[in-house]
Amino acid sequence: MNTGGWSRFNIASVTLGFAFLYLPILLLVIYSFNASRLVTVWGGFSTQWYAALLQNQGLLDAAWVTLQVALVSATVATVLGTLAALALTRYTRFRGRILFSGMVFAPLVMPEVITGLSLLLLFVAIGLDRGMLTVTLAHITFAMCFVAVVVQSRLLTFDRSLEEAAMDLGATPVKTFFAITLPVIAPAIISGWMLAFTLSLDDLVIASFTSGPGATTLPMKIYSQVRLGVTPEINAICTILIAIVATGVIIASLVNKRREVQRLRDEQAAGRA
Amino acid sequence: MALQSLNSIRRGFEPWNDPAARPYIHFDRVTKKFGDFAAVNDLSLTIFEREFFALLGASGCGKSTLLRMLAGFEEPTSGRILLDGQDLRGVPPYRRPVNMMFQSYALFPHMTVEKNIAFGLKQDGMPAADIAARVAEMLRLVKLEEFAKRKPHQLSGGQRQRVALARSVAKRPKVLLLDEPLGALDKKLREETQFELMDLQQDLGLTFLVVTHDQEEAMTMADRIAILDKGEVMQVATPPEIYEAPGSRFVADFVGSVNLFQGQVTRRDAGRAEIAGPGLVIHTANPGDAEQGKTVHYAIRPEKIRLSSFPPENARANAAQGEIYDIAYLGDVTIYNVKLDSGQIVKSTVINSQRSADDPLTWGDRAWIAFQPDSGVVLTR
Ligand SMILES: Nc1ncnc2c1ncn2[C@@H]1O[C@H](COP(=O)(O)OP(=O)(O)OP(=O)(O)O)[C@@H](O)[C@H]1O
Ligand SMILES: [Mg+2]
Question: What is the DSSP annotation of A5-65?
Answer without folding.
Answer: T--HHHHHHHHHHHHHHHHHHHHHHHHTTBSSSSTTS---B--HHHHHHHH-HHHHHHHHH
